User: Fold this.
Amino acid sequence: MPRKDLLTIASLERGEIDQLLDQAAPFKEVFKRSVKKVPALKGKSVLMLFYEPSTRTHSSFEVAAKRLSADVTNFDVSQSSITKGESVRETVETLQAMRTDYIIVRHGRSGLPGLIAAQTHASVVNAGDGAHAHPTQALLDAFTIKEKFPEPCGKKVLVIGDILHSRVARSTTAILGMLGVRVAWLGPGSLVPKNPPPEVLRFTNYGEAMAWEPDVVYLLRVQMERQSAQFFPSLREYHRLYGITETRLEDLRARGLYLMHPGPVNRGVELCDAVMNYEHSLINDQVENGIAIRMAVLYSLRPKSQMG
Ligand code: CP
Assistant:
């Protein structure tokens, strides 16, 4: 039975993840054609409901939907009646009346996409909710890693940074665990949860983490906007202790390690400028793969009205 919504990685079966990753590969081939479009969602409507800023997720969902031939509407929150106090429920009821087929939602409140999904016949995709989940980021990360390691089971990914506030860390750790990838978290003690899932290692020292010999180093964005307190002494100190400095970049190069970051990058904090020319950086691959994965996700979901 096709799934209506995509809200979290934990809600997916391993077989569904494999199917989505397999489906993304032929969609990526579509990009190489002169006509980068397939008619799979012709006549369907996709609504983008973003209450928080986004560059990559928003634009790649929009491109993905258009490459599937769907009609896309951008709901401009700043120009809507939300600014006059309209509730999310009222907004969704209005959108429901417009018979939208797919709603892509990003919101600062954890769990809100699930509430919307329960209220509408449209398929709802969580494009990031608070510090909770970002399932399509996790899928594109897994797809990117599988392109380099087709058999990823047993490979090691070191996730560095602000784990505490990161929906990406939660979702990407979950999917990698399902694929048998070993995951470790590294960051300041104040930003790495004390009790990670049992299969996840926890480091607070860069040297110890590198002695674990990861295959991929995954830097997270420091989320100043979600930090209500001072979690580390200064950004300069953060870069010195946990960032990819020029010296560390040379070490990654010598080891041939892949480097990932979900974006947007705080230059000079997580990464030094020289990383932009690093031959094993997968940051641009992540962006490109985001479109293919989001095509696969939209293609796989079935709004309630279409369920047999
Ligand atoms: N990775 C990610 O979610 O980036 P955006 O905030 O630009 O969408």
User: Anything to note?
Assistant: The chain is about 35% helix and 15% strand. The radius of gyration is 19 Å. The longest strand covers residues 123-129. The chain has a mean pLDDT of 93.
